[in-house]
Design brief:
Eukaryotic translation initiation factor 3 subunit L; protein biosynthesis; 22 helices; eIF3l; globular; mainly alpha; disordered N terminus; two-stranded antiparallel sheet; 519 residues
């Protein structure tokens, strides 16, 4: 059983002090003393269950009650309650900064301090002796927050127009803070030092038990380096997507088999982040079938399980990513109409949200491009420009440059698909047709038609992660003696999904009936 700590024992004067007299970093309410002392004890005892309860529940409860719009007490104020333990103080500061980013707007100094704290924390994990077991949720949040703060810093630094002289001087002085190479090096170092790639390889041969134990070490060792290394592969995928380097991002994720359950599915945030970035990268590389398959699986999973996460601090983020992935799925299916790849439940949700827009996206006129633009802008990651700014006058904002470039490349691809809509329509109608007849129907000459057909072949094929050519075509063809022979893929009927939806509806009706009070 989880211990129930009483967090209502903060002195009454605290709230007056926080709101009326301003924030005092050295004031530590009794409930915070109790929290850090218990957390410290549980970490020393490797009591993962209690650590998880305190991290997931107690920390948020205290934040809501005492620190809604102020930071937590400073690390110096709590250090003597935890024997001035260096590693615990680094972990406390990691949580301190995460709370600050979530509730307030960090200053430039605080952004730099947070970078220094991550450097110190990761250095200890990489080069020190770490004998802790921490919950996967916390270890995932560390990697997730590290990448988020890097992204946030790049966006902040790119808005140069209204920077003060003091901010510019600090940016010049601390030019290594949140440097893209530093971020990538830390993530890569965690992957390599943890030997996680070799561990996952050995697991396939039955020599390791990483996934079966969710990454935890039940022989008295530590899970910290191994699991941080594992989640760092997902962090690398995310960073490379933010930089627009999709091939490298997918290469970093390759050791994780996303067709199977794994440690990445043990934390809902990690699961969604992995598939969102995997799907987006494949969309940008024209591997639409891979993107559709994975979006379908994760959207179905969220549909079935989201009610269990309603009280989770990640709930809003789950709903937001859910909506973004439906928008990306709408784009994929408009460019590669393979509806047979998605479950009926996901399809009906998609039609409800984007049915009308998807019909208009098939037209390839200005209105269609505007919809592609709108959906991409809503659903894409917040791209970054990682290079240092120019400090020459006049100072300009460049925070939108990377996004505009990716949007331009995406819309250029959509424009190239315009020719294919007409070809696809005719190929669906005929099983065989001569080149001359199809050229007449499309009102072009034969050489132009051959070029269009070659373009269709090119655009409906992509190179996968193993450098093999794969087809995305819902309608394919081959040419033999000036005759076009059409090959259409067959749709597989799924009955199980229909029954599943009816069961969900029936359960809803039963729940409604249970709530009715009979006289």
């Amino acid at each position: 059983m989880a211990t129930n700590y009483d967090y209502d024992d903060a002195p009454a004067s605290y709230n007056d002090q926080a709101t009326g007299l301003g924030y005092d970093p050295n004031f530590v309410p009794d409930s915070v003393k109790s929290f850090v002392m218990h957390l410290y004890r549980h970490i020393r005892e490797k009591n993962v269950y209690e650590i998880h309860q305190m991290y997931e529940t107690s920390f948020l409860t205290l934040s809501d009650r005492l620190f809604k719009d102020t930071p937590w007490p400073s690390v110096d104020a709590v250090a003597h309650h935890v024997d001035n333990d260096h590693v615990f103080c680094l972990l406390y500061r990691e949580m301190w900064f995460r709370h600050l980013y979530a509730r307030l707007s960090p200053t430039l100094n605080q952004r730099i301090d947070s970078w220094d704290n991550y450097c110190s924390l990761f250095e200890v994990v990489l080069h020190g002796v770490v004998n802790m077991q921490l919950p996967n949720q916390w270890l995932w949040d560390m990697v997730d927050e590290f990448v988020y703060q890097f992204q946030s810093f790049c966006q902040y630094r790119a808005k140069m127009k209204n920077k003060t002289e003091q901010e510019i001087a600090l940016l010049r002085q601390f030019d290594q803070a949140w440097n893209v190479y530093g971020v990538l090096n830390f993530l890569q170092a965690l992957v390599e030092k943890s030997m996680i790639i070799q561990i996952l390889e050995q697991e396939k041969e039955g020599l390791e038990q990483f996934t079966a134990t969710d990454g935890y070490d039940y022989s008295g060792g530590s899970n910290v380096l191994k699991v941080l290394g594992y989640f760092s592969m997902i962090g690398l995928l995310r960073v490379h997507c933010l930089l627009g380097d999709y091939n490298t991002g997918l290469k970093c994720l390759q050791p994780i088999d996303i067709s199977q359950q794994g440690v990445y599915t043990s934390v809902i945030g990690s699961h969604i982040t992995t598939i969102y970035h995997y799907g987006f990268a494949n969309l940008m590389l024209r591997r639409y079938v891979d993107a559709i398959r994975e979006f379908n699986k994760i959207l179905l999973y969220i549909y079935k399980t989201k009610q269990y996460h309603q009280k989770s601090p990640q709930y809003e983020q789950i709903l937001k990513k859910n909506e973004q992935m439906y928008a990306l799925l709408a784009i994929c299916l408009s460019l590669c109409p393979q509806v047979k790849l998605i479950e009926e439940t996901v399809n009906s949700q998609l039609r409800e949200k984007y049915g009308e827009k998807m019909i208009r996206m098939q037209r390839y006129d200005d209105e269609a491009f505007a919809i592609y633009d709108e959906l991409f802008s809503y659903a894409c990651p917040k791209f970054i420009t990682p290079s240092a700014p120019s400090f020459e006058e006049p100072l300009v904002n460049y925070n939108q440059d990377a996004y505009r470039l990716q949007l331009k490349l995406f819309l250029y691809e959509v424009k190239q698909q315009q020719l294919l809509a007409g070809v696809r329509t005719f190929l669906r109608v005929f099983s065989t047709i001569s080149l001359g007849k199809l050229a007449d129907y499309m009102e072009v000459d034969e050489p132009t038609l051959r070029t269009i057909l070659m373009t269709y072949k090119h655009k409906t094929h992509a190179v996968d992660s193993e450098r093999k050519i794969i087809s995305n075509a819902d309608v394919d063809f081959y040419i033999d003696d000036d005759m076009i022979h059409v090959v259409e893929s067959k749709t597989v009927k799924r009955y199980g999904d229909y029954f599943l939806r009816q069961i969900v509806k029936l359960e809803g009706v039963i729940n409604d009936m249970d709530r009715i009070q009979l006289d």
